[in-house]
Specification:
- The chain has 516 residues and is α/β, with parallel strands linked by helices.
- The chain folds into 2 domains: 12-405, ANL, N-terminal domain (Rossmann fold, 3-Layer(aba) Sandwich); 443-515, GMP Synthetase, Chain A, domain 3.
- 28% of the residues lie in helices and 26% in strands.
- It contains 14 helices and 25 strands.
């Protein structure tokens, strides 16, 4: 499914007709016996199965087997496949398997529940959902079956993990090496790199909007990080950001594919597991949430001698200005500012360890050189918000025809600029730009974004006399606080409605007076 031709920006010189699958094939042919993907060592604490370490040859077989299984289910080219998986090797293999099958991967955040899942799966017209039987205390497979029962279009639910329910297609056998299925033969018309590969979800002031990207746009996002950090070939990357967002995928999976290195995945945050992965895999690059950097630095968790690069991903870019000074004898810190699902802009810290201001009009990487690659152009809208255009910035609404439904959607102006919604200020004397505030009405909690109005609506459905408010939080951006006469009852009702657990938890912190 092509939404538009390639864009005429400098990064296309690095992309051309390259697809994510061709990047993987190149790395697998160059180092078939090298470790490609590694699970968190504490995997069994939150999901089924022992930790996996797959070589490129083993990963290649698994990707082909997943693609073959999807074709055997009768799914056609450009079918949208929903995914809800923890941050394990399956999450990366499944995206690549879906793409190798000629289909479109739609990774969904692990904290989403029935209300969010049913809405987006229906809007995408997804034909299948791939998930896991267990993710901590949560059973994603059971949720997927509930959604499939509600929506006629979902034909298959597939699951990794032990003992999937009847009617669910099991997938574990595709990873154990005993099942070898050849990849289906599939030839794209025209430039395969221009076809949609991945769909993520942006939270806009009008609601959730699907954001579709082709291979060229994904590669441009990865190059923005790789070039600014000067990542070496065969980089050993420890990824602590889930790949269900553009920022997560572009800063973990894409640098792994572009450098042909090793990607060690980390789920949630566990200090012991983090330390073990660092020591066992001798990672030279870490990708972590920006707000965690000072805590990890103070705890001495960046102490390994092999560490050369730290990518700090800021899902709330307006908070970068108050970040502490970076001090490390060996590693460089690069701040990656994520503007929702629109784009990410990376900037290496100054020699003094302070954040580098963004340029006002265009960004080239690596910064500081006159011949850098152009990755984005900036503009300040009449309402004072930041608009971006460039090779990674998606310009087309998805699914096609969504504009006729008057649903929330991505929109570009006639010049190709997409409004991020973030307020900004331009210093013309210095030629710099500062992000000053997030989009109005949007609540950020860690890597998750919500509309305040949607949270209020759900709480009112649960209890007309209950209220929820978002309070500032140094670590997560915001935290939710619920007010109700019987908070325990509201908590239970929100869970019944399929609300996000972060919202339900806002009413579970105080004891229900009726139970006293």
């Amino acid at each position: 499914m092509i939404l538009g031709g390639p864009k005429t920006t400098d990064t296309n010189a690095h992309a051309g007709a390259t697809t994510l699958d061709s990047l993987f094939h190149y790395a697998a042919a160059r180092r078939p016996d090298a470790i490609a993907l590694a699970d968190p060592p504490n995997r069994e604490h939150f999901t089924d199965g022992p930790p996996r370490r797959l070589t490129y040859a083993q990963a290649d077989r698994a990707i082909s087997a997943i693609a073959a299984r999807l074709h055997a289910l009768g799914l056609h080219a450009d079918a949208v496949i929903g995914m809800q998986l923890p941050n394990t090797v399956e999450a990366v293999l499944t995206v690549l398997g879906i793409i190798r099958a000629g289909m479109i991967a739609a990774p969904l955040p692990l904290l989403w529940r029935r209300a969010e899942m049913a809405d987006v799966i229906e809007r995408l017209g997804a034909k299948a959902i791939i998930t896991a039987t267990r993710a901590g205390a949560f059973a994603p497979c059971e949720l997927a079956m509930q959604v499939a029962a509600e929506l006629f279009r979902v034909r298959h639910v597939c699951s990794f993990g032990r003992n999937p329910p009847d009617g669910v297609v099991p997938l574990d056998e595709l990873l154990d090496g005993h099942v070898t299925l050849p990849a289906p033969r599939f030839v794209r018309d025209g430039n395969a790199a221009c076809h949609v590969a991945l769909v993520t979800w942006a939270v806009t002031p009008t609601g959730r909007a699907a954001v579709a990207r082709n291979h060229t746009e994904l590669i441009a996002g990865g190059l923005a990080a790789v070039l600014e950090c000067s990542l070496p070939q065969n980089a050993r990357i420890l990824g602590c950001i889930a790949t269900s967002s553009f920022a997560g995928f572009a800063t973990t999976a894409m640098p792994w594919l572009l450098t042909g290195g090793t990607l060690s995945l980390h789920h949630g945050f566990d200090p012991k597991a983090f330390t073990a992965q660092d020591e066992n895999d001798r990672c030279d690059t870490m990708v972590v949430p920006g707000a965690l950097v000072p805590l990890l630095q103070d705890a001495g968790l960046f102490g390994h001698a092999a560490l050369k690069n730290v990518l700090a991903v800021w899902r709330a870019p307006e908070r970068l200005s108050v970040s502490p000074t970076w001090r490390h004898p060996n590693a460089r810190l690069t701040d990656v500012l994520a503007f929702g699902e629109i784009a990410l802009l990376g900037s290496r810290r100054t020699a003094a360890g302070r954040p580098e201001p963004l340029p006002a009009y265009e960004m080239r990487v690596p910064r500081g050189g006159g011949d850098g690659v152009l990755i984005a152009e900036m503009a300040r809208t009449p309402t004072g918000t930041l608009a971006l255009r460039g090779a990674m910035v998606p310009c087309h609404a998805f699914p096609p025809g969504v504009e006729r439904l008057h649903a929330p959607r991505l929109q570009a102006d006639p010049g190709g600029f997409v409004d991020t919604g973030y307020s900004c200020r331009i210093d013309r004397a210095n030629g710099t730009l500062a992000v000053t505030a997030p989009p109005p009405g949007v609540v950020a909690i860690g890597g998750y974004h919500f509309l305040q109005s949607e949270l209020t609506r759900l709480v009112k459905r649960a209890n007309g006399g209950a209220y929820v408010t978002a309070l500032p939080d140094t670590l997560t951006g915001h935290r939710l606080a619920g007010i109700a006469g019987a908070p325990g009852d509201v908590h239970s009702r929100l869970r019944e409605l399929g609300a996000n657990p972060l919202l339900a938890a806002a009413f579970a912190q105080r004891r229900n007076p009726k139970a006293a």
